[in-house]
Task: structure prediction
Amino acid sequence: MNSKRIIALLAAAVLAISVTGCADSSGGNKDSNKAADTQSAQAEGEDKDAPEVPVDSTFDENLPQVAFSLESGFYDSEQSLELSAGDGMIIRYTTDGSLPTASSQEYTEAIRLTDRKGDFATLAEHRDISANGDYNPPMNVLKGNVIRAAAFDDKGSHGQVISHTFFVGIDRQKKYGDVPVISIMIDQSDLFDYDKGIYTLGRCHDEWLAEDKSNASLDGWKHEANYTQRGREWERPVYVEYLLPDGTSAFAQDMGVRTMGAASRNEYQKSLRLTARKEYGEKNVSCEIIPDNARSDGNGNVEKYKSFVLRNGGNDCNFAKIRDPLLQSMIADKTSLETQQFTPVVAFIDGEYWGMYTLVEDYSDNYIANNYDIDNKNVVMIKCGEIEEGEEDDIKLYSDMYEFITANDMSDADNYAKACDMIDMQSLADYMAFNIYIANEDSIVQGNNWRMWRVRDGGGAADVADGRWRMMVYDTDYSCGIYAGGQNYDSNFIKKAISATETFKDLEQPPIDIFRSLLNNDDFKQMFILSLCDMRNISFEKGKVDDAFDDMSALYKPLVKDTFTRFGPKYAKDGLDYNTMLLRDFLDGRYDVFMYHITDSFKPGNKVNVTVRTSDSAKGGAVMNTTALDLSSDFSGEYYTAYPITLTADPKAGKFVRWEADGAELSDPDSDITEVTLSADCTITAVYE
Result:
């Protein structure tokens, strides 16, 4: 279970008082009476941002571990838990999530594990967790039993801490269905202490208010607080158990936790980033946390994670909660983009119900390494104009690309060819088309919530290891008319994206300038217009959206209801049904008007209807431009006569024979890949043996 090393590093933390600096201060860590021993971790160079963790001299790896008579999980009725260790050992344990110490309760008889629903909600009583003001959460939330135990000898030394979570009287299947449960154990002072608590307003808020009295009048999401602080000094040790629907544990290990997000850090339910580090015990979580999460290179599933995020929904936290996972799922098959895969989970902190979250992949250099087998030290990642992964000088790689593309005429073939060596044009075209289609009002167009990555030194087996920049999708919640009741579906965001008057004034080299310069090239313009068409016709086709809506709503609805009750957002009275209805209204309306936006923005010629089918619907599909088609039923979409489309046979569908066209001209009907010149409504058939 727990790593032995973690006890040597963390056990003294329960006796500590950490004074951590706010805002830009460097802070410090006084969690131990002895100086923190971090030299070995630094020498290994495993985690450049790993927190400094003290050594507890009382840990003895040779002492026995405590044996539990029961495994973590759900139990119908009260249980009796027995603990045992070697002769002469004293077992001490805690029930509040903290690590046991020499002063913790001594185990003398079996521990009664009961249904704790009626117990006082210790964590919920903390009210100073948002600048929006206090609220009154229910105190009868569901609770589990967390037991952390270690064997001590007569000298005060102890063996490995063993931790388990037991839920009694909760009908797991009825309550959570096939959704995993994540149990987080943490010293509660690490969450709510005035100085070091990462979940509270705390000292940072008071100091920020004292700096300028006018700060108090700002909206709550603009307030500085303990929970808005960033960096390794604001990471706290936790123990995490991940319980699958069948009752088994997928993984259980020590990790680090931070709050994350931007404005949504001010919410009562905050997003959390969980990170595995060698300093805590294991460098990765080595299991398939997210079911069927295919690697980006197509070589099997992702089997290990350096970190992952429990996401509260961002801007959508108090509305539908499904916005970002739904929208990203619509483009998950686009190989030109990185998208975050997800699974809903139900969280408990120190045994207390903490609502449902969407567990999502966390972008980092390790994410690239785990998806492509690329050396993470060769990964450069830019987030909102700043180096997120890589070295300080790597910003020049972005600046050089920006300056070349924006300062030179991209209509010139030679200039455009050089630009194509710097950035993956299809990736940028698809990324822009996606953000425009969903009417993202906090995106690359405004200079926010954009990421791109590349390898520093090109070369290697992976196709993406060519040194070109590629786009990464995340945080799409401020979209689809979230604050307009879904009624701005007819707003032409294409014009906003291509207009030079729409700029982000605080960004020195806004990436939207790159996009606008590239639009001067006819090849890129054609690629982008086809991406816009594909986004509407394929990715957000009405039937596909409806199916995804139905599946996700059925999964999320019962979980969100309890979460709204627990955290009391002002929109809770509307419920998931109402808020998802508004989201669906936007996407329905968007589909109906989007082709008019393309026509109005670019005047690309006559619009025609293209139907694609296969000779045998059981055989599979095809790829239109860069997006896969499911041809189990006929595909139909609208395109323009000014721009040919490209069709590629699906090698998994069987032996390809030919293309047949009625009303269109094919460049080569016998080739797997054919270009289709459009002049009127047409039908193209992929013939397979």
